[in-house]
Amino acid sequence: MNTKVTIAGVEFQNPIMEASGTFGSGMEYSEFVDLNKLGAVVTKGVANVPWLGNPTPRIAEVKSGMLNAIGLQNPGVEVFCERDLKFLEQYKDAKVVVNVCGHSAEEYIEVVDRLADEKRVDMLEINISCPNVKEGGIAFGQDPKAVEEITRLVKAHAKQPIVMKLSPNVTDIKVMAKAAEAGGADAISLINTLTGMKIDVERQSFVLANKTGGMSGPAVHPIAVRMVYECASTVSIPIIGMGGISTWEDAIEMMLAGATAVSIGTANFYNPTATLDILNGMKEYMERKGIEDINDIIGIVK
Amino acid sequence: MNTKVTIAGVEFQNPIMEASGTFGSGMEYSEFVDLNKLGAVVTKGVANVPWLGNPTPRIAEVKSGMLNAIGLQNPGVEVFCERDLKFLEQYKDAKVVVNVCGHSAEEYIEVVDRLADEKRVDMLEINISCPNVKEGGIAFGQDPKAVEEITRLVKAHAKQPIVMKLSPNVTDIKVMAKAAEAGGADAISLINTLTGMKIDVERQSFVLANKTGGMSGPAVHPIAVRMVYECASTVSIPIIGMGGISTWEDAIEMMLAGATAVSIGTANFYNPTATLDILNGMKEYMERKGIEDINDIIGIVK
Amino acid sequence: MKVKERATVVAQKKLAEGVFSLELETNATKYAVPGQFINIFSNDKSKLLPRPISICEINELNNTLRVVFRVVGEGTTEFSELQAGDTVEILGPLGNGFPLEGEKAIVVGGGIGVPPMLELAKQLKGSVTAVMGYRNDDLFLADEFIDAAADVIIATDDGSVGVHGTVVDAMKENELTADVIYACGPKPMLRGVAQYALEKGIKCYVSMEERMACGVGACLGCVCQAKEVDDHSHVKNKRVCKDGPVFLSTEVEL
Amino acid sequence: MKVKERATVVAQKKLAEGVFSLELETNATKYAVPGQFINIFSNDKSKLLPRPISICEINELNNTLRVVFRVVGEGTTEFSELQAGDTVEILGPLGNGFPLEGEKAIVVGGGIGVPPMLELAKQLKGSVTAVMGYRNDDLFLADEFIDAAADVIIATDDGSVGVHGTVVDAMKENELTADVIYACGPKPMLRGVAQYALEKGIKCYVSMEERMACGVGACLGCVCQAKEVDDHSHVKNKRVCKDGPVFLSTEVEL
Ligand SMILES: Cc1cc2nc3c(=O)[nH]c(=O)nc-3n(C[C@H](O)[C@H](O)[C@H](O)COP(=O)(O)OP(=O)(O)OC[C@H]3O[C@@H](n4cnc5c(N)ncnc54)[C@H](O)[C@@H]3O)c2cc1C
Ligand SMILES: Cc1cc2nc3c(=O)[nH]c(=O)nc-3n(C[C@H](O)[C@H](O)[C@H](O)COP(=O)(O)OP(=O)(O)OC[C@H]3O[C@@H](n4cnc5c(N)ncnc54)[C@H](O)[C@@H]3O)c2cc1C
Ligand SMILES: Cc1cc2nc3c(=O)[nH]c(=O)nc-3n(C[C@H](O)[C@H](O)[C@H](O)COP(=O)(O)O)c2cc1C
Ligand SMILES: Cc1cc2nc3c(=O)[nH]c(=O)nc-3n(C[C@H](O)[C@H](O)[C@H](O)COP(=O)(O)O)c2cc1C
Ligand code: FES
Ligand code: FES
Q1: Is the per-residue pLDDT at B132 higher than 60?
Q2: Any idea which positions bind FAD (chains C, D) (predicted)?
Q3: Residue A286, SS3?
């Protein structure tokens, strides 16, 4: 039974990654899962310098999901390389995908340049879709011209393959996927969070200090599946699918829709072993269905 | 305690409506709720001629929500006037909002013209956002120019105030709200359903015959609240808020975000008395909080 | 009259592998007729839509309805774990039910289509032949038809009991005739039974299935294709939940 | 070591209006220290995020943890309805806990901040003065401090018992001194206690609260403001779930 998948020449031992920002750099969850068994560890977004993030509350619960407005707090790329990448040295079987954020093209490029010669970095995921950064972030991800341009710029600097992470807060995800492909992206990943809001009716005020937050969790899954499906029939670069995956069924669904690999985010918060539980479920499914190669189910529902 | 709200000169005894397409024309739910107690009955979308709708399955369950791909099946405006409007004659206290659909501007106008002299029709809700109609529907609702134009055309013909119903499947809902306002809309209503997809992993096929369906229910509520909030700070016409309202808290939340009235859709399916339960809960909230006039809470969270 | 209420579980019993019998105390009992169904709601709040399940028996004395269901997904798994004393939300009775007709009736059930035939067989005034199709020798409910039907004929896919084949094979083999046939089961079976009825010139009622949301006729989610333009919809669609689930085999596309 | 498991409810008791004591049998007990908390998950599958609740007592003999909580929303309502024999998912123990220090300690609890002080008072080696603030005479848990603390001082908002005022008023009135103060309660109280400690030159630990998602330090959802750049975050933020919930009052913005 083969579970290996390949994206832009990088071979993953299985299609299971965790979603950026939900797993730190793996340190905290290494108490629950053997990181070496994952297809890849996808790190929390990292910027050129440390970012403070948003004020609290940063978290709100919604039905079958959550809102977050972390605001991309991160210690900056220097500390990241010295501490987080070093920590990940010990997990050679899992690939490392570094999620990159920035307020401007220059800031993205600074991070990409700094990471260029880091051997532990197998792939870069460029987050052009975080809804919680006013200065840049989502604006990039909502304008196809900006998507194409930032992709081209980052690609020109990157030594590792680049995955452009798309925002679902758009009229037509296909246009954004095409723009990323046109800009030279090696792959795309989707979906980032959907912008939502929660108001406390007793206090008559926003639950989140930032007013709005990014919605994730099972509630967004059907939208994510639809968008992955739409992109799969539009671009020829591989897709990393995510959004509300919490069971092996959700993961298989995403692959049937066209994803070559999948990321697990919010599910980690209520099931710290979600990633490996899902991997096991997928393997049982393959066995039961007589699927020899996981690649045989990618995008077969049309 | 005043629960009356006014939209475009039409006074509703309370802000509770049910959402188009989830309540028929009220006939079926009149076994459970006294329609006369509702702010308004909003009818299922009606076209110039009968529409067959999509093949089945038309319904899929998703976490905290559902997908539907009814495809706007309806008996046409003639039967609607003779049967449904006649049925609604007996409920004088509730206003009647007729939801109008069409494949083209001409079709919308034909319906609007036919309804012009129907005394029982208090308001028209123009559905430019149904994701299940390939020929028109969503295309209108996703292009601000089209929104403005269709609004202008319909407004020129309509004898009743018009509410433009917006699609949430857009990059920036504020742009659409502004377009509707510019076109002369008396009010806007949002959100219609978010396009989603579900795949059956055992059968490896789409659950819905139409592949995609519109997502509704509690899962979409935070997105709806955010969009209502964004529109409320953008346009000065009133907003009818909907999307996942299933408790009085959800309804109050929507009004705090800026909605003058609210519609209850999917919740009717699992609680046939949802509309009146929510109304009662709102009244208790007002009493408890010493809110004399429901209008005093509209859009106060900023 | 439809009732939405928290019904109390009076008894739960496993009838066969994956097939359960659930007895619910509910005021919906008062209004129920054979062929109707109830919507059962999950206690898991992330699952909003009801599971439609046919009424298998109506016990007015105890104010209970009995349903028999097969575990196919998360909802039915949850229902199978209910125990006496637990409560579950239901809405019902829904749909039209079977009209009680004829001097001589055949009731045909296939697999999980067998249960609704039991109350029907009991209530039919004339003589009843029950024809039941199963996969194998797990003949759940079959024994309970003995009192309700004059004849009980079994067909099994694997030939372990009765006729080796489908219910239609069994009907043919027994050259069954009657004034009316009532059938519930998978679509291919209904098609076969309808064809048999047509050939023999017997009136035939079939009970249809479709994914539902409202269950009361409002959402138009559950339509089946009608042969003619329907009075309510004004298109060739009929609502399974409201206009059905029972239709004349000649009214609908099978 | 953190444990994620289905814990079994051993006992549930109402202590005061809206305040409940829940005893859970769990292997997390083995690793727990005072001041840590556990994440309790709702059985309602539409609610995904855990409710962090402080550990009130650790009973290694019975392998049980006791938590005491106030009903404020749907999650805590659900927990209050749990009965012996029921199960509930938990993750824990989480956070750092109180360091056990000093010859003479003051433990200060306000309202629902009282419970974590109980196990702490028990485990502290030196002499302990317990200062507890309540709204009114519903003095839940106060009696249980009698064995654990040398002195028990009560303050109530309405003056019905003990000092009329806050815990800080009570501390001032009793001119309390010690080597170390441990405090848990609403932020204004923590601010007051920290100020008192500063003035008296006493080391002071405070237990902080913030909305959480992961509970294990991965998501950065639960940060509080730090006075200095933090070693882990490299910004002026500390994670309440991992670096806390217990901080030196001088480390964090109150
Ligand atoms: C009128 C009617 C009467 C029925 N009577 C019986 C009966 O007596 N005994 C019995 O075992 N089954 C009966 N069914 C089928 C039963 O409704 C489904 O097996 C059940 O809904 C599956 O729920 P689940 O959560 O276990 O499966 P899932 O597949 O997890 O359900 C997911 C969703 O699909 C819907 N769904 C799945 N299968 C069906 C289906 N076949 N028909 C309609 N909706 C479906 C569910 O209601 C739910 O909304 C009947 C269906 C209809 C329409
Ligand atoms: C470290 C820590 C220890 C705590 N210890 C206790 C304790 O011992 N006893 C006790 O009664 N309470 C304690 N709390 C507060 C407790 O977590 C909340 O009261 C509880 O989460 C409310 O859940 P709910 O579903 O009833 O309320 P809801 O308001 O419906 O909850 C909605 C969401 O907000 C979160 N939330 C709401 N209030 C709080 C809060 N004050 N802190 C953190 N998250 C919150 C919930 O976890 C949930 O995700 C503690 C909080 C923290 C952070
Ligand atoms: C707390 C939190 C933090 C996140 N941080 C990042 C981030 O730093 N960079 C990024 O690209 N996406 C980030 N995301 C988005 C996730 O990677 C993922 O795209 C999204 O949550 C949908 O997947 P899920 O539903 O499985 O969580 C974050 C999500 C959450 C919930
Ligand atoms: C079964 C179904 C049918 C619908 N039909 C219509 C329709 O005919 N016209 C329309 O404008 N919206 C239609 N809608 C959208 C609803 O009116 C509403 O905008 C949406 O469902 C969100 O609200 P809810 O989450 O409360 O259901 C339909 C929704 C559902 C679930
Ligand atoms: S389920 Fe809504 S019309 Fe039948
Ligand atoms: S709750 Fe995730 S870091 Fe604290």
Answers
A1: no
A2: 51-54, 68-70, 75-76
A3: helix
